[in-house]
Each structure stands twice: as structure tokens, then as C-alpha cells.
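C-alpha cells help. One example:
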Amino acid sequence: MFLPKYPDTPTPPPAHTHAPIDPAPVPVRRSLPSVSLDQKTVAAVLVGGVVLTALLAAVAVTAISVAVAAVILRSLLRDHHRR
């Protein structure tokens, strides 16, 4: 019932006999404008990255030290109130 019916003799596919009228136009490849980075620009970007990384590290170290100091002070004040 659902089986396909095949022809008794296979027929070859039709041959492609006609040629295209106009060949497809070749797309024009345009290169991007070249950006020249001089050494001063690269150095400025690198120095900026180093400075920002150092500031981030300083903020992280400060936050950790403040948290440790808060825990120690809390512990000392709690022991002081118990006496």
C-alpha cells in the first residue's frame, strides 16, 4: 500500500543541452581599508591595559583586606561584649 512504484525500465536523466546565454558576472572583491597602527598607538593601548589591570587588582586586594579586618574586628567586639 505504501510502497513506491518504480518503472520497469529505468530511464536516464535528461541531458543538459543548452548553454547559458550570459555567464554570471564575477563579483568584484574589494579589500577593506588598511588601518596603520603605529608603535605609539600600540604602546598606549598596552599601557592602558596594564594600568587598568593593576587598578582592578588593587581594588580586589583592598576589598579582601577590608573584609578580613571586618571579620577580625567583629570577632574581637563579640568577645569583648561577652565578658
Remarks:
- Residues 59-83 form one domain.
